[in-house]
Each structure stands twice: as structure tokens, then as C-alpha cells.
Broad specificity phosphatase PhoE
Amino acid sequence: MDFIFIRHGHGEHLIDYPNRLNTLHPSLTEYGKFQVTQLRNDTIIDPDDLVLVSPTKRTIETAAILKNDLDFVISPFVGPRMFPQNPDLPFLACDHILSKTEIRNLYGDIEILDFNLECWKEGINQIEQYIFEGYAKRLIAWIGERYKTIFMISHDGTITNYRILLGEKGLTRKDFLGEAGVYRLKL
């Protein structure tokens, strides 16, 4: 099984960093769209691959550019998530996820995977580690043998949390992928 983690392109909340981190639902900037378009030239997503996307505008826009259509799955279990966890840090507006209603209004009848759990209000950003791990393990169990290649379009913190959950050790913020970064993990 291959996990291919893709970090979204440059977002509007990063234009005047850190002053715009409290921008609600930031989109990709023109530069972010360019980054992802360049990435698309090197990224082959087969129809049988699973593409999981965080429920934020910038990750959904990244997926739409990479896929050229809306054939992907949005899940609150793929971000955003803070790394490292620090409950004393504020919850930033840029990390609020879109609600199911907002997703349907913006993107139509797209597939949403949430196992009917009440996880939309908080998302996974600042939940306890054991709760995140339970959600993540349930998602990985659902993937099971269904897919050989899984693309996860998400955020640096979320990607790092999943990499650790999948067995990598000693990761720090220095291991973040950065804008439109890609990391392959073979299991």
C-alpha cells in the first residue's frame, strides 16, 4: 500500500503571515493554484486510487486541480491537525473546516466520509491524541485492502501526525512538506 501525502498549495491566509491566520476558509492564491498545476504534471492519479481530502477550501481546490474533476472523498479525519499538539495555542480561523452543508452548497453532491460520527464541530485539530488515533485507525481500517494507492491532500500538521501513526519516528516541524509538497510512504 502506498500513501502519497500532498500538502495544499499557497493559501490566502499565508499572504501576510502570521497576520492573516485568522482568515476564515481561505482559498488558494493564484500562486498556490500555479504550484498545484505544476504538481499535476508530475502526479498520476489512477481511477482506482483513493483521494482523501481535508474539508477546507484550499485542500478541496488543490484536489480539484489535481483531479480535473470532483472525483474524491472529503473527510474530517484528514485535517487540519496541529503538530505538535499544544492545547494552550488558540484555534485559528484558517483551520476551521467547512460544514457538510457548506461543502454541499459549494461543491455539490461530493462523497463525504465521516462514519456518521459527530466530528464536524471540532474537527481533528485540537482533539486529544487518543481520539485522533481512534479516528485515524478507523479510517485506515476502512481503506483496508480496497486501495493500493491512497492520496491524502491535507495540511503539514495532519500529514506529520499520520506519518507518525503509520510508523515513522522522530518527526518534527522540520519534516513538514511545505506548499504543494509531496511525500510517499510505502507500507
